[in-house]
Design goal:
The structure holds 2 protein chains of 2 kinds. Chain A is of the alpha/beta class. Helices cover 40% and strands 17% of the residues of chain A. In chain A, strand 15, helix 16 and strand 16 form a beta-alpha-beta unit. Chain B has one domain: Pyruvate-ferredoxin oxidoreductase, PFOR, domain III (Pyruvate-ferredoxin Oxidoreductase, domain 3), CATH 3.40.920. In chain B, helix 2 links the parallel strand 4 and strand 5. The chains are: A alpha/beta, B alpha/beta.
């Protein structure tokens, strides 16, 4: 399947889609006009697909500079009567939260869906927050799909619901739904409105206290009516397997595990699957509780529905047992799988469930942590900086490396060990400001180009204004790399694939009044080292921009041009000092069984930085 | 066919594990079978282990239960051991014999197991084991990149595989670049012929 088919796939046909791809198709079948995002795993493929098809679909799409801006663009479009779709990873909703909370008060005219891709078990994330709690904090209707087909169906329902009640709708997926493929039946693609019109009404669109007091009341009234819809929503369904001893309340990915365990063990239980789970459909759940002897709640990650169920049990003086996370039947943390759910269900049904023999091995298994790619310019930046630090005889314990969210955080690994503190997008500089004030240690902050545009500018202004002594290294690889290579404001192309103004990081840095601002191509190790030496000795805010395209870009360009340069080792000149392997750590290098060093031609990217690293000049272009 | 046929694929980033899985999934769809698949994206992909799981038939979750895989395709020998918890002695297991040694081994912070003990351990545990040098076969077919299609060919030739060869080939044609399809088909056929179970 090709990305274009997500747009061109005909009504009545079907496609094998990722949950993320199904979200795009759902938006297209709903007549979406505006889509925006800041990329973040596990939501990134939604934007990648829009980037490829937006022009043909007649949809406006942008990679906004951060999630808050994306949400604002989406909210404005919706208040002008257009259908809009904004999507992000779970922690992106924290960035957007300030506007998100108020956008729910204000409401919309055109339908608006906010998609939050949560990441249970934190495969690519800094925390495991459950944004179903965010739905309750904001007072926004919440949809929880269990598979790609449902993602698409709930997108369509969500837009309708949003327009009917003039309120944005939150869709919460998890990694296993975003990155699950399944068969999706296609409906017709609907062309969205080309242009909206904003009808002025400050009492609805301005959050002055006098107005929000009324909005707050109206929101609660809306939610009451919406709960009625949830009570009768056809995808909030009961699956009766012929028994009433146990009723299982479940949603999202957890539902799938429940179903597989129930089928495999032929369990006689009743299941209530909630796809529309906030406002919590009290009547539906109460009737369900009354129809069974005991209840088990299976959900990822927090005991959100479990507490809702317990509230109902308390409110109506019901004496039934509710199994779940709170009583230890199921684990509180991390994502579930069929085995975990089976173990929990065995306790609730009090019988032995199918358990298979599990093989294991005593042999050692090699570690494969994520690494900087061969040819990654960040490696050159770190190598040159390490050298400058050594030459200036600075001690590692006297330096604090404040890192950020992006590939460069991989410098946490040996031998670089250049990530001591990292908590959120843009935090490297703000945290750096704090360390600069609190300690006498040298502070070095690392931040990427996209992350700088996202949340790095306010803390840079803070550092300058508050006279911090800090070195800020902006690793500008001309792309949003970690998430797979999306455009950002620093490159001359926008989300529609059209030419766009390049926003200059150097001009921004100069504009703040930082005393030392220099840009260097890190592939030139010597010059980079010299600039770092100067910057490290500068008193005040020093900004060094190391600018070189991501290896993903150069690889693609070389492929297009048919260029293939590979490096090799002149074995007769190699003294096996292993600087290339142990200090530079390009993954293309390896030590053979006989102890000689070799470069894997399949991995070598041809960047040639290793030639500068080798003290014996024993690396050359492979003929 | 069994009610649900479960496939576990495991490899290293860049080996085409996800592509091979998608081809199987779309072929299952062509056969009007229900199919669900789970794949790994993002940070976990940068040179790391890549796991995809498929369930074909009457299943909701794409994750294969421990010890329940009907078929495992390991694109790398040590990775076969990493997914050992998903297979049982009746599973069909196809292992590529070409190792990919990560830099952590060169750095001395992790150890790569001795290959002969890897295969010995697998042989003791599994009755239906097929070890093939997919790298060598792919090279013979014309491109080392076609390793994944060699392994897929072998998988399709295993006795209980639920989808016909021609549907897989059709799916390959729809999922692989036209300029490399000839090489990939050759690699697939060569892999297919490796199975004499």
């Amino acid at each position: 399947m090709k990305a274009k088919e997500i747009l061109t796939g005909k009504e009545g046909g079907n496609l094998f889609l990722l949950g993320n791809e199904a979200a795009v198709r759902g938006a297209l079948e709903s007549g979406v006009s505006v889509a925006c995002t800041y990329p973040g795993t596990p939501s990134s493929e939604i934007g990648d697909v829009f980037y490829k098809i937006a022009q043909d679909a007649g949809v406006y799409f942008e990679f906004s500079s951060n999630e808050k801006v994306a949400l604002e663009v989406s909210a404005a479009a919706a208040s002008a009567g257009l259908r809009s779709f904004v999507f992000m990873k779970h922690v992106g909703l924290n960035v957007a939260a300030d506007s998100f909370m108020s956008a729910v008060y204000i409401g919309v005219k055109g339908g608006m869906i906010v998609l939050s891709a949560d990441d249970p078990s934190m495969y690519s994330s800094q925390n495991e927050q459950d944004n179903r709690i965010m739905a309750r904090l904001a007072g926004i209707p919440l949809l929880e799909p269990s598979n790609p087909q449902e993602v698409k169906d709930l997108m369509k329902f969500g837009f309708e619901l949003s327009e009917q009640f003039k309120i944005p709708v939150l869709m919460r997926t998890t990694t296993r739904i975003s990155h699950m493929r399944g068969v999706v039946d296609l409906g017709p693609v609907v062309k969205g409105k080309k242009e909206g019109f904003f009808k002025k009404d400050p009492a609805q669109y301005v959050v002055m206290p006098a107005y929000v007091v009324k909005m707050r009341k109206k929101l609660m009234e809306k939610l009451e009516k919406i709960e009625e819809v949830a009570n009768n929503f056809p995808l909030n369904k009961i699956i009766d397997r012929g028994g009433k001893a146990l009723g299982i309340v479940t949603s999202g990915g957890a539902f799938n595990y429940v179903m597989d365990v129930v089928s495999e063990n032929n369990l006689k239980v009743k299941i209530l699957k909630l796809a529309f789970s906030h406002p919590f459909p009290e009547k539906l759940v109460l009737d369900f509780i009354n129809s069974v002897d005991n209840i088990l709640v299976v959900e990822e990650v927090e005991p959100v529905m479990e507490k809702e169920v317990l509230t109902i049990i308390g409110k109506y003086n019901i004496t039934k047992k509710a199994y779940g996370k709170l009583d230890g039947t199921l684990p509180r943390i991390y994502e579930y799988n069929p085995d975990i759910v089976s173990e929990g269900m065995a306790k609730a049904v009090d019988e032995e469930l199918i358990k298979r023999e599990k093989f294991s091995t005593k042999l050692p298994l090699p570690l494969r942590p994520p690494v900087l790619c061969p040819g990654c310019p960040h490696r050159a930046t770190f190598f040159a900086l390490k050298k400058a630090i050594k030459k200036l005889k600075l001690k590692e314990e006297d330096i604090i490396y404040s890192s950020d969210i992006g590939c460069y955080a991989l410098a946490i690994q040996a031998p670089y060990k250049m990530a001591d503190y990292s908590i959120s997008m843009g935090s490297s500089i703000g945290i750096g400001c704090g360390f600069a004030k609190a300690t006498n240690q040298k502070v070095i902050s690392f931040i990427g180009d996209s992350t700088f545009f996202h949340a790095g500018i306010p803390p840079l202004i803070n550092a300058v204004h508050n006279k911090d002594n800090i070195l800020i290294v902006i690793l500008d690889n001309r792309i949003t790399g970690m998430t797979g290579g999306q455009t950002n404001p620093g490159v001359p192309i926008d989300g529609m694939g059209n030419p766009a103004p390049e926003v200059s990081i150097e001009d921004i840095a100069r504009g703040t009044g930082a005393g030392f601002v220099k840009t260097i191509d890190p592939i030139d190790l010597k010059k980079t080292e010299e600039i770092f030496k100067e910057a490290l000795q500068f008193k005040g805010v020093a900004v060094v921009i190391t600018k070189h395209p991501c290896a993903m870009i150069t690889d693609a360009e070389n492929r297009k041009k048919g260029i293939s340069i590979k490096y090799t080792i002149k074995q007769e000149e190699c003294t096996k000092c292993l600087i290339c392997v142990k200090n530079f750590t390009c993954p293309a290098f390896f030590i053979k069984k006989d102890g000689s060093v070799s470069i894997n031609p399949l991995l070598c990217d041809g960047c040639g930085v290793c030639v500068q690293v080798c003290p014996k000049k024993a690396i050359e272009v492979k003929k | 066919m069994k009610k649900v046929y479960k496939i576990q694929l495991i490899g290293v980033g860049g080996q085409g594990t996800i592509k091979a899985s998608t081809i199987v999934g779309e072929a299952a769809m062509k056969k009007k079978l229900n199919v669900v698949m789970s794949e790994v994206h993002g940070m976990s992909q940068r040179g790391g282990t890549v796991v995809t799981e498929l369930k074909i038939g009457d299943a909701y979750s794409p994750l294969v239960e421990e010890g329940a895989a009907d078929l495992m395709i390991a694109f790398e020998p040590a990775e076969a051991l990493r997914a050992l918890n998903k297979i049982n002695k009746e599973s069909f297991v196809i292992v590529n014999s070409s190792p990919i040694i990560p830099f952590t081994v060169s750095l001395g912070i992790s150890e790569y197991p001795d290959l002969s003990s890897v295969f010995k351990e697998l042989r003791v545990k599994i009755s239906n084991l097929l070890v093939i040098d997919a790298q060598k076969i792919a090279k013979e077919a014309g491109s080392i990149i076609s390793e994944n299609m060699v392994l897929l060919g072998a998988a399709v030739a295993t006795p209980n595989f639920p989808i016909e060869k021609d549907l897989i080939i059709q799916s390959m044609k729809e999922n692989l670049p036209p300029q490399s399809i000839e090489t990939n088909l050759k690699a697939f056929e060569m892999g297919f012929k490796e199975v004499k179970m």
